[in-house]
Amino acid sequence: MVDIEQLKKHRTDFLVKLYELSKGDIYASISMWELGASMNLERESISPIVEYLIGEGFIKAAGLGGFISITHNGIKESENILNPTKTQKLDRPINIIKVENMTNSQIQQASSNSQQVYVATPDEQKVKGRIAGIVSLVVCIITGIMIFNFGWDLSGQVLTVISALFGILGVGSLISPAHIGKITIQLLHNIGKNYDDEESSRAKRRDVEEIRANEEMAHTAETLNHPEVAKFYKGKAKIIKDTMNR
Question: Per the confidence metrics, is the pTM higher than 0.90?
Answer without folding.
Answer: no
